[in-house]
Amino acid sequence: MKLDEIGMKIKLLRKEKGLTQKQLAEIAGLSRVTLGKLERGQIGSITLKTIDIILDALGYELDFKRKMGFGLPSLDEL
Fold first, then answer.
1. Is the pLDDT assigned to residue 13 strictly greater than 80?
2. Degrees (nearest 5) of the Cα angle 9, 11, 13?
3. Which helix (H) or strand (E) covers residue 1, if one does?
4. Which residues contact residue 14 at a Cβ distance below 8 angstroms, ignoring those fewer than 6 apart?
5. Rg of the Cα trace of the chain?
6. Which residues contact 34 (CB under 8 A, 6 or more apart)?
7. Reduced to 3 states, what is the DSSP secondary structure of residue 40?
């Protein structure tokens, strides 16, 4: 996932959980304004720790995956 997609993904996960921005912001210890900016991709810098807290509140965690190159993906990449 690219950095500019994180906010949109967080918004999608929040809505799937049935949480408002205010509810998730309170759980994660953020302001609703900060969370809203993150979801819209308007936040210039945010710590990895803050993203981790938000994802934890949604029941997710950070993970790494290999970028797909040219050709067919390996089974591990699928």
1. yes
2. 70
3. none
4. 21, 24, 39, 58
5. 14
6. 25, 43
7. helix
In the DSSP assignment, the letter for residue 71 is S
Q: Residue 25 in contact with residue 1, Cβ under 8 Å?
A: no
- Residue 57 contacts residue 27 (beta carbons within 8 Å): yes
Neighbours of 43 (CB within 10 A): 16
Burial of 57 (0-12, 13-18, 19+ CB in 10 A): buried
What is the C-alpha separation between 28 and 50, in angstroms, rounded? Answer: 8
Helix (H) or strand (E) holding 6: helix 3-16
Q: Is the pTM of this model over 0.85?
A: no
